[in-house]
Amino acid sequence: MSAGPDLAPAVRAAPAGTVYRGRSGQWAFIGHRISGVLVFLFLLLHIVDVSLINIDPHLYDEVHELYGNVVLRLFEVGLLFALVFHALNGIRIVMVDLFPGAVRRERRLLAAVVFLTLATCIPGGYVILLPFIEGTLTG
Amino acid sequence: MRTTGPDARSRRPRPSFETWSWFFMRVSGLVLVFLALLHFAITHIVNDVVETDATFVAERWDNPLWRLFDWTLLALALLHGLNGLRWSIDDYVRSPARRTSVKAVVYTFSGVLFAYGTFSIVTYG
Predict the structure, then answer these.
(1) Is the Cβ–Cβ distance between B103 and A37 less than 8 Å?
(2) CATH class for the region spanning B19-123
(3) Is A18 in the B-facing interface, judged by CB distances under 8 Å?
(4) Contacts of B85 (CB under 8 A, 6+ apart)
(5) Closest chain B residue to A12, measured at CA
(6) pLDDT digits (tens, 9 = 90+) for A106-139
(7) A139 and chain B in contact, CB less than 8 A
(8) Separation CA A20–CA A26 (nearest Å)
(9) Which residues of A touch B110 (CB under 8 A)?
(10) What is the ipTM of this complex?
(11) Above 50 in pLDDT, residue B72?
(12) pLDDT of A2 higher than 50
């Protein structure tokens, strides 16, 4: 975003404060924000596509068929990663809030979040892409 | 924060809107872990996405409990997301006038879609 001339120097310098040298915690924070915004934007889109069923079920089916397309399947795999990471990292945040001692194991907790995200989303993503993978293999 | 009056003596500050907002994010987040992941598993893993057509939705929404499930998911996810967006706007949009206008647009847009989504779930069939 461009810093307009209407901002005082102190205010203009302020956004730099949102990037701190927090190492793993910094990346968890950024990942949580980005995954949260992505899921929220999908939710807004999803409200509109589901609502089509009230206008005309055939129209719903026509639009809904697009989700079976390989490009949108890849998008759904991305949504799965964002959703699972956001959920697991959210649990990590709640744990740190409830048990302040967990802060000392902060890096290990984040490693567990990343490991569990990959361990569930890689097989999950495979299942989502399966019709495409099989379609490619069989012809 | 209050610095004068009888409250200044108590150690714990009175819960403000932001305290409740923090609490809401934790509670709704934990509920959403189950609701959102179950919803995704049903519509993308257990069933293939192309199977969740209008007939699938019709059968599911025949049961009012699934409508309640979907509406709870919609309401909690939207409020949780909106509050997260509010925190992000406060972090990145520094000019007070711009902050107010960005929030006005985001709240209006989300509010309209929330009403529209609620309308879809309630009036279907």
Answers:
(1) no
(2) mainly alpha
(3) yes
(4) A37, A40, B106
(5) B94
(6) 889 999 999 999 999 999 999 999 998 888 655 4
(7) no
(8) 7
(9) 44
(10) 0.88
(11) yes
(12) no
